[in-house]
Amino acid sequence: MRRHLLLIILIAISASTYAQSQNEISVRYGKSFGPATLFSVFRGGVPKGCSSGSLRENNSIGIRYLASIKDRPKLKFETGIEYLFGKLEIDPAPTGDPIHDASHTEDFYLISAPIFLNHYFGKYFYINEGIMLDYQAAESDEYTGFGVGIGFGIGAKFEYKNFTFNINPKLERHLFLSKKDGLIELGVMFGVGYKF
């Protein structure tokens, strides 16, 4: 696992060499809310008649690096690493047996390295989208594995001198490209950054 995590970090950092101009680093905190639905392209979308999962009590912390792209003042490259932790509530596939049909909760975590583009509109608003290199783990093997995810968000940013403050609601499909069961996550992130 350490080798895979190191590979994710190196890919994310090396991609930043294409960006130039003013840089920014920010610390992020996020909350995930609402149910998360199983999804996997390699399994043909959302499976029917199988178990389902929902994210519960999830928090995330992370560090993001942003850099302007040469000759594109309204476009920024964004990368970093994020750690999500919380609970995964699993409803097993119905069998007719009340004991086996009872839902249970497992510890859940996700390490994600986003590779996003941020498009700025005016002084305060932006849209960010891109791919994520994901590793998620739970007690159940079907929810544990590596994959590629996709993400989309709409954000607002306020700058004061060299400091930045932002809020970024997001929709992410983790392990979108994977043989494991990924999750659709709806959440919001808050960040404080410094421009250098």
Residue share in β-strands: over 45%
Fill in the CATH topology: Porin
Instruction: Let me know the average pLDDT.
Output: 83
Strand order of the largest sheet: 1-3-4-5-6-7-8-9
Please bin the fraction of helical residues: under 10%
The total domain count is 1
What distance lies between the first and last C-alpha atoms, to the nearest angstrom?
Answer: 33 Å
Q: What does the main sheet amount to?
A: 8 strands, antiparallel, barrel
In the CATH hierarchy, what is the architecture at level 2? Beta Barrel
Compressed to H and E, one letter per element, the order equals HEEEEEEEEE
* Oligomer description: single chain
Q: What is the CATH domain class?
A: Mainly Beta
Low-confidence stretches: 16-20
Shape: elongated
Total helical elements: 1
Structural class: mainly beta
What does this protein look like?
The protein has 196 residues and is mainly β. It has a single domain, classed as Beta Barrel (Porin), CATH 2.40.160.20. It contains one helix and nine strands. It has an eight-stranded antiparallel β-barrel with strand order 1-3-4-5-6-7-8-9. The chain is elongated, with a radius of gyration of 18 Å. The relative contact order is 0.22. About 3% of the residues have low confidence.
